[in-house]
UniProtKB/TrEMBL annotation:
It is found in: Cell membrane; Early endosome; Endoplasmic reticulum membrane; Membrane. One of its GO terms (molecular function) is ATP hydrolysis activity. It is a multi-pass membrane protein. This is Phospholipid-transporting ATPase. It comes from Pygocentrus nattereri (Red-bellied piranha). Its cofactor is Mg(2+). The keyword 4Fe-4S does not apply. Mg(2+) binds at residues 414, 416, 828, 832. Residues 129-192 form the P-type ATPase A domain. Its EC number is 7.6.2.1.
Length: 1175
């Protein structure tokens, strides 16, 4: 056996069957084919369970522990705990083990609870009942028990439980109508077709008699592609083979509409369905703050090792003198004398590591976890993010990324249902330059006062009247709209008539419905398609019948559709509607200039425009058209190309009638939200599966593209005219011609000095751009970089015709670019799940298209407008709070441990602790934990209203600015300085016997009382008061809770110390702190030294803040100072733009102005110093 055979076998059994078999055979109803036809090969397929959870009952503990110990701090404390167990160390193993156990337990409970919610949601879906045909009867099953080959009965408004091939429907023509909103974002009705030879089987008994097999490709994620065939075994020997395509495939997650019931066979189930294959695999998301924490921990670990090494070396230098190595009161045992010096040195090194290990703050992780968990409730409790219509507020699915909401640089948003409400509204039409504006009607719901016609402009002439009626008839006939009898949707009756027997319109295109409804308001009502005749009701309430002869369907290349109809009088008409760019070049007469002007006016307003034209056909022309179309449709090869050529010949020499304007209604405040995100420095990309024209119109309406934005197209249409390489380099030259080597990141994005560019790209072109470079190709590999360079210089990007995985690829491409920006993805359908999972932060909208996006997201909000407050307010606060928490924790632990390091130089490097064990254990758990936890939950450095009014404040915290290395170094040096003041201040004051004698005559006794533990307690007291007051100085938002916790923590420390040293505790073997604290407080000089050392420690930070606020204030600090002056009412009457830093145009020019401005800052600062800590 050669190696290739072995390799094939390994890949077969290790990689799974789907990776090596290119097709599968499905036996409908699990029936074996007739003998002698083909071999029966049963295949094993997965069941229909959907899994979005990360853990199972069995793997939760090992998997969760593995993930938690990947954190540097957790792993480090595990090692320290094991060292304390193994060797004799200065401190108890409990001091490390207990906090570590607490951290691991709290985190595991939180993550386990979040995953339990995912399991609960999965079970709700997997246990849904489905109807399966078995032995000629309909049986109810749970969705998870569905198998490939089962014949399923689906009723109207039910969701397809898996991917199905349509066998038959309740309609005679074998069609059914489906909405795929949760898959590709389009809520319009699409038509699917049953297999011709099985469409007559309309009952369970008949369906059960079908004997057939389906051969199809293995599961793949492309929603729009499917290749297969069905072999139907009738009485004859050879089976009938019919081709299957995407028009026969019903996808999981889509919903059956306007069809009473269907029968279909399951071909892809569970995680093999196209919807599931478009899910990204879940991965642990880590925020930028957590990455900074890990980097700081590595630095502090290096500091810790350095401290331990220095002390170990100095210990053996100190013990070089035998009298110091083995004094008379501390003789070594024989075993200790015989131990090798390297082993002794290593043991001492580990002991020093344990002694100093508190510099790594394990409690910081507990506090961070608690801050994230408790802080996430502020989003859920926010009344402004509650939607009355849905009756729901925002949801937090994971609290690990709260602070990442304050760091977003790129926002990737879906269009349909996210930016828009998915409701089309007919606005106006223009016929030969005359504009008609009906009252508002939307999707069959008639608004008040909609019985009249408002006309702008003078009435048309007699010839114009004929054109007007032709225009209205064209829009009533040139469409694929279907009529359905009245139904109740969400308790609201939908219909097109008032007070009459009503019906309503459905279509694969929602704007077609809006146009037909608009014509109803203008006097021409489309009634029905019956026996291939279209019926319309004209203004005189007369029914006109037109025979529908041909439909030339819309496609994205032609960008138009046409119908050929015959009137009652026998006249033949070809009506055509389409984009202005595809109609105007084919027009030979009509009022082109007037219509073009109106179209351009409406396009600027962000409305979706269509032009309408017609021509009369003679009988000879019609026969020629029929011949062209039939020959193209019968072609087996290049059918699409031949049809396109036929359409091109037929659709020309038109007479222009007019144009329409339809609005895809934006969600409330969507444009304001996008504008705010732009001002905050974020780039907004729209990723949609919708058509380019639709998406572009929405981008204009939502202010993503502005009037002066120059649109750059990178689409299939353009790459057909010239190569992708040439198009990319042309676009690159265009955007770089003005900006040079600078990118748009340099500018505010709102400056009028620079040309705004907007890029439009479609899915097919994106695939070509993302394609890996071919070997030997010199240019292929650079496409991604060129594409990214173009995107960086565009203020907005629109990606249309995107498959779900392509959305995720775009997000991944931007994440991996050299700037490594923080990305956010927001969407409302299952087609957005991959993008939501790929982005750093995923937000789902609880919309009309199911809850898949909301369930798989990190956060869920009711409407797009709530994103503004979530980022600009909650995100801003979360980041400010947690960055202070992280820096403060490292600072207070440096203050805590550095005196312990200095103390070793005064105790012969004997590993003697400076602080009592109780102080060591409780410092981070009790004495200093609550004030910083409360600060990180409720601090508001700027008023909430100001943050919403001035989005540019978001830029002050961009790119993790508060956790940069210079700030980290400042906090560390501040901690070292304070520690030196604590230690040496106490040391020199303590060394003076006159100072410490408290006026007593027996100085020797007093000196004895002021021993080792008294010195440590004095240092520890100054430490606790200093770090707590430092946090009080940093607090801007004072409430009674702050006062209670900060002063309560200091009081708790004093009371605990009095009780700990004032009572003889029976459970302690020895009590070295007995009466120490009270003896210290009995000394007046000790009180004076505590107050003096606290003031000296805090002085440098206060001076630094005073100078920075006076000389180099940030925008945030200006607003804080002004807000103090106006006593918190700044948001009511002060223009915020006046508080931004003025631009520098030259030193001499602004010298007087700068002097005045600086004086104003000093005034603000003085007011601030008086007011800042006033509740």
């Amino acid at each position: 056996m050669d190696f290739s055979t072995i390799r094939n076998l390994i890949s077969r059994y290790c990689a799974g069957e789907e990776n090596w078999v290119d097709s599968r055979t499905v036996y409908i109803g699990h029936k074996v084919p007739p003998p002698g036809t083909e071999a029966y090969i049963p295949q094993r397929y997965p069941d229909n369970r959907i899994v979005s959870s990360k853990y199972t009952f069995w793997n939760f503990i090992p998997k969760n522990l593995f993930e938690q110990f990947r954190r540097i701090a957790n792993f480090y404390f595990l090692i320290i705990f094991l060292v304390q167990l193994i060797i004799d160390t200065p401190t108890s193993p409990i001091t490390s083990g207990l906090p570590l156990f607490f951290v691991i337990t709290v985190t595991a409970i939180k993550q386990g609870y979040e995953d339990w919610l995912r399991h609960k949601a999965d079970n709700a879906i997997n246990q849904c009942p489905v109807h399966v045909v078995q032995h000629g009867k309909v049986v109810r099953k749970q969705s998870r028990k569905l198998q490939v080959g089962d014949v399923v009965l689906v009723k109207e408004d039910e969701t397809f439980p898996c991917d199905l091939i349509l066998l038959s429907t309740s309609r005679d023509d074998g069609t059914c109508f489906v909405t795929t909103a949760s898959l590709d974002g389009e809520s319009s009705h699409k038509t699917y077709y049953a297999v011709q030879d099985t469409k007559a089987f309309n009952t369970e008994e008949e369906v059960d008699t079908i004997q057939a097999t389906i051969e199809c490709e293995q599961p793949q994620p492309d929603l729009y592609k499917f290749v297969g065939r069905i072999n139907i075994y009738l009485d004859r020997d050879e089976p009938i083979a019919r081709p299957l395509g995407s028009e026969n495939l019903l996808l999981r997650g889509a919903t059956l509409k306007n069809t009473e019931y269907i029968y279909a066979v399951a071909i892809y189930t569970g995680m093999e369905t196209k919807m599931a294959l478009n899910y990204q695999s879940k991965s642990q998301k880590r925020s930028a703050v957590e990455k900074s924490m890990n980097a700081y921990l590595i630095v502090y670990l290096c500091i810790l090792i350095s401290k331990a090494l220095i002390n170990t070396v100095f210990k053996y230098v100190w013990q070089a003198d035998p009298n110091r190595d083995e004094p008379w009161y501390n003789q070594k045992t024989e075993t200790e004398r015989q131990r090798h010096i390297l082993i002794r040195a290593f043991t001492d090194f580990l002991a020093f590591m344990v002694l100093f290990n508190y510099i790594i703050p394990v409690s910081m992780y507990v506090t961070v976890e608690m801050q994230k968990f408790l802080g996430s409730y502020f989003i859920s409790w926010d009344d402004e993010m509650f939607d009355e219509e849905l009756g729901e507020g925002a949801l937090v699915n994971t609290s690990d990324l709260n602070e990442e909401l304050g760091q977003v640089e790129y926002v990737f948003t879906d269009k349909t249902g996210t930016l828009t409400e998915n409701n089309m509204e007919f606005i106006e039409c223009c016929v030969d330059g005359h504009v008609y504006v009906p009252h508002a009607i939307c999707n069959g719901q008639i608004m008040s006062g909609a019985s009249s016609i408002d006309m702008i402009d003078s009435s048309p002439s007699a010839e114009g009247k004929e054109h007007e009626e032709l225009f209205f008839r064209a829009l009533c006939l040139c469409h694929t709209v279907q009529v359905k009898e009245e139904e109740t949707v969400d308790g609201i009756k939908r219909g097109i008539h008032q007070g009459k027997a009503t019906s309503f319109y459905i279509s694969s295109s929602p704007d077609e419905v809006a146009l037909v409804e608009g014509m109803k308001r203008l006097g021409f009502t489309y009634l029905r398609l019956k026996d291939n005749h279209m019926e319309i009701l004209n203004r005189e309430d007369e029914i006109e019948r037109f025979e529908l002869l041909e439909v030339l369907n819309f496609d994205s290349v032609r960008r138009r559709m046409s119908v050929i109809v015959r009137s009652n009088s026998g006249e033949l008409y070809l009506f055509c509607k389409g984009a202005d760019s595809s109609i105007f070049p084919r027009v030979i007469s009509g009022k082109v200039d007037q219509v073009r002007a109106r179209v351009e006016h409406n396009a600027v307003e962000g409305l979706r425009t269509l032009c309408v034209a017609y021509k009369r056909l003679s009988r000879e022309e019609y026969e020629q058209v029929c011949h062209l179309l039939s020959s193209a449709k019968l072609a087996l090869q290049d059918r699409d190309k031949k049809l396109a050529e036929a359409y091109d010949v037929i659709e020309r020499d038109f007479i222009l009638l007019g144009a329409t304007a339809v609005e895809d209604r934006l969600q409330d405040k969507a444009a304001d939200t996008i504008e705010s995100l732009h001002k905050a420095g974020m780039k907004v990309w729209v990723l949609t599966g919708d058509k380019m024209e639709t998406a572009a119109a929405t981008c204009y309406a939502s202010k993503l593209f502005r009037r002066n934005t120059q649109i750059l197209e990178l689409t299939t249409k353009r790459t057909e005219e010239q190569s992708l390489h040439d198009v990319l380099f042309d676009l690159s030259r265009t955007v770089l011609r003005q900006h040079g080597s600078m990118t748009r990141d340099t500018f505010s994005g709102l400056s009028s000095d620079f040309q705004d560019y907007g890029l439009i790209i479609d899915g097919a072109t994106l695939s070509a751009v993302m394609k890996p470079a071919q070997e030997g190709s010199g240019t292929g590999g650079n496409y991604k970089e060129i594409f990214l360079e173009i995107c960086r210089n565009c203020s907005a990007v629109l990606c249309c015709r995107m498959a779900p995985l392509q959305k995720a690829q775009i997000v991944k491409l931007i994440k991996a670019s050299k700037e490594h920006p923080i990305t956010l993805a927001i969407g409302d359908g299952a087609n957005d799940v991959s993008m939501i999972l790929e982005a750093h932060v995923g937000i789902g909208i609880m919309g009309k298209e199911g809850r898949q996006a909301a369930r798989n997201s990190d956060y869920a909000i009711p409407k797009f407008k709530h994103l503004k407050k979530m980022l600009l307010v909650h995100g801003h606060y979360y980041y400010i709070r947690i960055s202070e928490l992280v820096q403060y924790f490292f600072y207070k632990n440096v203050c805590f441990i550095f005196p312990q390091f200095l103390y070793q130089f005064f105790c012969g490097f004997s590993q003697q602790p400076l602080y009592d064990t109780a102080y060591l254990t409780l410092y981070n758990i009790s004495f200093t934990s609550l004030p910083i936890l409360l600060y990180s939950l409720i601090e508001q450095h700027i008023n909430m209203d100001i943050l919403k009014r001035d989005p540019s404040l978001y830029r002050d915290i961009a790119k993790n600015s508060l956790l940069q290395w210079p700030i980290f170094v400042y906090w560390t040096f501040l901690g070292v300085f304070d520690a030196v003041v604590f230690f040496f201040g106490a040391f020199f004051l303590f060394d003076n016997t006159t100072f410490t004698s408290n006026g007593q005559l027996m100085a020797t006794n007093t000196q004895m009382m002021f021993g080792n533990w008294t010195f440590g307690t004095l240092v520890f007291t100054v430490l606790v008061f200093t770090v707590t007051l430092k946090l009080a100085l940093d607090t801007h938002y004072w409430t009674w809770i702050n006062h209670f916790v900060i002063w309560g923590s200091l009081l708790f420390y004093v009371i605990f110390s009095l009780l700990w040293g004032g009572i003889i505790w029976p459970f302690l073997n020895y009590q070295r702190m007995y009466y120490v604290f009270m003896q210290m407080l009995a000394s007046g000089p000790a009180w004076l030294s505590i107050i003096l050392l606290i003031m000296v420690s805090l002085l440098p930070d206060v001076v630094k803040k005073v100078l920075c606020r006076a000389l180099w204030p940030t925008t945030t600090e200006r607003i804080q100072n002004a807000d103090k002056l106006y006593k918190g009412h700044l948001s009511e009457f002060t223009p915020l733009s006046s508080l931004h830093a003025p631009p520098v145009h030259g030193r001499g020019h602004n010298e007087g102005q700068n002097h005045t401005h600086r004086r104003t800052n000093w005034c603000c600062l003085c007011a601030n110093l008086f007011l800042r800590n006033t509740p």
